[in-house]
Amino acid sequence: MNDFSEREQGQILIDKDGQWRYEGAPIVRQDIVALLSEHLVQGEDGSYWILWRGQECKVEVEDTPFVVWSVSPVQEKGDTVAIVLHLNDGSMELFDPATLTIGSENVPYCRVKKGRFRARFSRKAYYQLARMIEEEEGGFFLKLGQRKYPVQHEPI
């Protein structure tokens, strides 16, 4: 490891609400958060690192590095056919409903960034998503257009 990674190790944290922090203080500039997020990688051991300009910096993550702060339904002829996720790094992307799971404490998660990262739904996003979930035949489903996606619980 180089001097940068040793000096910075443990000083950057992403809390469970998706707030980036440096030495305990919130990083409030969204452009900095976006830059750091763009260079975030996950190691084989589950650790997170920022790799930028040949340097490495370890990032402590309380739950997931990405948090869905809100969701926007995409309507077509009165039906919700897709969902846009608004993430804590300021980016937006289409939701892959097949990746929706419910974790411990009934917190929903999904995959983002082309499936590379797990994302936690904020309470606000969870309530927005819950309006689109229906109960049928003893199970819960997210209906988008003519398709139904079962809401799966993660293994304990």
| Poorly predicted segments | 1-9
Order of helices and strands: HEEEHEEEEEEEEEHEEEE
Structural class by secondary-structure content: mainly beta
Count the DSSP helices: 3
Amino-to-carboxy terminus distance: 35 Å
How many DSSP E strands?
A: 16
How helix-rich are the residues, as a percent range?
10-25%
Please indicate the count of domains: 2
Strand order of the largest sheet: 9-8-7-12-11-10-16
Estimate what percentage of residues fall within beta strands.
over 45%
The mean pLDDT is: 91
Q: What is the radius of gyration computed over CA atoms, rounded to a whole number of angstroms?
A: 17 Å
Task: Walk me through what this model shows.
This protein has 156 residues and is mainly β. The protein has two domains: 3-61, duf1285 like fold; 66-153. 15% of the residues lie in helices and 47% in strands. It has three helices and 16 strands. The protein has helices at residues 3-8, 30-38, 123-130; strands at 12-14, 20-22, 25-26, 40-42, 48-52, 55-61, 66-76, 79-87, 92-94, 101-102, 108-112, 117-121, 133-136, 139-144, 147-150, 152-153. The strands form three sheets. The chain has a seven-stranded mixed β-sheet with strand order 9-8-7-12-11-10-16. The chain is elongated. It starts with a helix and ends with a strand. 22% of the residues are buried.
